[in-house]
Specification:
Blueprint lengths: L1 E10 L2 E11 L4 E5 L6 H8 L7 E6 L2 E2 L4 H6 L1 E4 L11 H11 L4 H15 L14 H13 L5 E5 L7 H14 L4 E5 L3 H7 L2 E6 L2 E6 L1 H9 L3 E7 L2 H9 L4 E6 L10 E8 L6 H10 L4 E6 L4 H19 L1
Parallel strand pairs: 3-8, 3-9, 6-7, 7-8
Antiparallel strand pairs: 1-2, 1-4, 4-5, 9-10, 11-13, 11-14, 12-13
Helix pairs in contact: 3-4, 4-5
Length: about 325
């Protein structure tokens, strides 16, 4: 549905996007992540045709964005971080104006406007001034505007920025409902939102792609195999020594968390080799050393931890190359 090939964008000596390559499949929701200045918005602006690339190719549903800009843009609905809305218009007037700009046929405009207002839940606000709407409803108007023309692809830049928790949930549910019928690429700083909504995650740092996978697979890959989180009664040294001697255990690390209420308890993470299940061996090894297990559970890494590790590694590599 979207192919980005060897994409480069430079501003003088600064390379904002550095030979970026990725593919977005039809009908899925992709999260586009990266620290501030990583090149997310620049890439999105190039994908929508708002910004020209220095080199490389962007193909939207078979249409090159530079060679066939009109055909490519017809496939895309774009919601910038700040929706381009006229505050003195009503949502209905804004959508009618946008429908004219998009070249939607006169005999189809009314039906399409009513459809996107219903889809985004703004029918009751249709005749209010946009300046009187909450930020959440303005985001909905912006999303309705992006949906006009029934685009195959939606590109959403920070769609929940500045919203309260309830509004975030509402916009998240709305985005999730668009999957299948539309292909969605969204950027966000709320990583829990990406985990909850997206099928796949693209992480960029310093203009380069550093990861592309499902949120679940990224978490598993970054642990280096199966991991257990244990709460054990005993001294830290005794627990670490006993666990490191267990066959199949690759690494044991103390948890970086607040101290437990009971000073006689310690928490550790146990990483196994080649996805081995070492629970039984761990149980018997600690029982033999008279180190009681108070709790044992799978240790899944959060997307936040994966994101930080990948972007920190990329930053360290860039510094080392410099």
């Amino acid at each position: 549905m979207i192919e980005v090939r060897n994409l480069v964008k430079t501003y003088g000596d600064h390379m904002a996007v550095d030979h970026l390559n990725f593919t977005v499949e039809k009908g899925k929701i992709y999260g586009f992540l990266g620290p501030n200045g990583a090149g997310k918005s620049t890439t999105m602006n190039m994908m929508t045709g708002y910004l020209a690339s220095t080199s490389g190719d962007i193909v939207i549903d078979g249409h090159d964005i530079l060679k066939e800009p009109e055909e490519a843009k017809k496939c895309v609905g774009y919601l910038p971080e700040v929706p381009p809305l006229y505050m003195e218009m009503t949502p209905y007037e804004q959508l009618h104006f946008s429908a004219e700009l998009k070249g939607i046929r006169k005999d189809e405009r009314e039906e399409r406007i009513v459809s996107v207002m219903k889809q985004t839940g703004i029918e009751d606000m249709a005749d209010r001034m946009i300046r009187h709407l909450s930020k959440g409803y303005r985001q909905r108007v912006g999303l309705a505007q992006a949906l006009l023309g029934d685009p195959k692809i939606l590109i959403l830049d920070e769609p929940t920025a500045g919203l309260d928790p309830l509004q975030i949930i509402e916009i998240r549910d709305l985005i999730r409902s668009l999957a299948g019928e539309h292909t969605v690429l969204l950027s966000s700083h709320i990583l829990s939102e990406v985990s909850a909504v997206c099928d796949r995650v693209l992480i960029i740092s310093h203009g380069k792609l550093v990861a592309s996978d499902s949120p679940e697979n990224l978490s598993q890959l970054m642990t280096g195999g199966k991991a257990l989180k244990l709460t054990v009664k005993g001294t830290g040294d005794a627990v670490l020594k006993a666990l490191k001697a267990v066959p199949g255990v690759a690494a044991v690390t103390p948890c970086r968390e607040e101290a437990l209420r009971d000073p006689k308890l310690v928490q550790v993470e146990v990483h196994s080799e080649d996805n081995q299940d070492v629970r039984e061996a761990v149980f018997y090894a600690l029982a033999e050393k008279r180190l009681p297990i108070y709790d044992m559970q799978s240790a899944a890494r959060s997307l936040e931890e994966v994101f930080l590790e990948l972007t920190e590694n990329e930053a360290q590599d860039k510094e080392a190359d410099a």
